[in-house]
Amino acid sequence: MGGRDNVVHGALVYCMIFLLSIGIVFVGFLGLLLSSDTFHLHLQVTDKEPQVPCYFIFGDSLADDGNNNDLPTLAKSNYPPYGVDFPEGPTGRFTDGRLIVDIIAQLLGFHGFIPPFANLKGADILKGVNYASAASGIRDESGSQMGQVISMNKQLSNHFAIVSRIAQIMKSYSAANRYLGKCVYTVITGNNDYINNYFMPEVYPTSRIYTPQQFADVLAKEYSDQLQTLYSFGARKVAVFSAGQIGITPEMIARFGANSSASIDAVVQLFNDQLPSLVGNLNSQLSGAEFILIDTSDVSIDTDGVNVADTCCPTVPELGTCVPGSVPCSNRSEYVFFDGFHTTEVVNEAYAKVAYEEMSLFYNASAYGGVGGISRPAPSWLWNQRVGYSPY
Ligand SMILES: *[C@@H]1O[C@H](CO)[C@@H](O)[C@H](O)[C@H]1NC(C)=O
Ligand SMILES: *[C@@H]1O[C@H](CO)[C@@H](O)[C@H](O)[C@H]1NC(C)=O
Ligand SMILES: *[C@@H]1O[C@H](CO)[C@@H](O)[C@H](O)[C@H]1NC(C)=O
Predict the structure, then answer these.
(1) pTM attached to this predicted model
(2) CATH: 2.60.40.1180, 3.40.50.1110, 3.50.50.60, 3.40.50.2000. Which one for 4-384?
(3) In its keyword annotation, does this UniProt entry include Hydrolase (predicted)?
């Protein structure tokens, strides 16, 4: 069965936040499509070592596992019914269960989830850290109408602090650099630069300063600089997620109308159109770089019998987040969206599986003529140019 009407084409759901003239709207949106056989993915947890030694995570609410919990911001989800399907309950994850990055970590063979930078008590930082922050974006100001968020630039400086600690642990920056080149990195960002910035003219001037094409260009340039900074901190195996189809999320439709979905997504697509050459240029200019683009529109969901229009939890009007303490739908697998912007765990599983397969260059050398798994260290001048860096 599965008529085309039941297929959502689209986007990676992203987390974003809106301040509208009438109030504040929190937005997270993921765009993707699943097929029915990926909908119920069985994850094997084994005692084996992970396929890579470490996994570092950057991004927005699609990846945030608790970094905003203690910040003065409205972009939080550390209350029920979030986490209803998560073993630890509400943690600051914007979904019922696991995030895409949690599932990628499991598929890579990690036994626990990658801990948030904001709470590293007892954590082994050599296995990786999650820096992602809900409502944040590539631009420093994106999402700031919600309160404090941790922008990509700030996430990178947090990573630099961790890298310095790893260099201390390993007794030399070159050893740390070699080690960091074996880690996997994912970056899921960009949508809040639209939802919490460009599409919010009441708060941000960007849509008056830039045409959609100009904004896509400046955003891509800034993103490219950030990814080069990540490279300069030793990263080689970096999966960059494209921005999502934010126009089809329930909260965006509630706010702008279903007829606006396509034009909103067309503006975001101008940014996505830059990503293949952005990633290609990084790989050709940076020695040993293995950046890949995860194009979320490659994923498709067979939503037969699944509710794509409504949210699983009752949402706060104009905010899109779950009403605190509300009762969610009884079967989360019957919904694409948990809240107004964020997908349910079952959708996240489908996304994660596709991303993991596309990341096989990072962990499967035999499929790439022995190339996978090998990385060259960053030139030391790149390291040394970072302000305040000291390996000891
Ligand atoms: C949306 O578009 C359809 C088809 O063009 C049109 O019939 C409908 O009136 C529009 N709805 C709104 C709310 O503008
Ligand atoms: C929940 O929904 C899914 C998808 O429709 C279905 O396969 C599953 O059997 C349902 N679970 C329960 C407990 O009803
Ligand atoms: C690695 O690649 C080889 C060759 O394509 C394939 O047979 C194997 O299943 C892959 N292993 C993993 C873990 O993906």
Answers:
(1) 0.84
(2) 3.40.50.1110
(3) yes
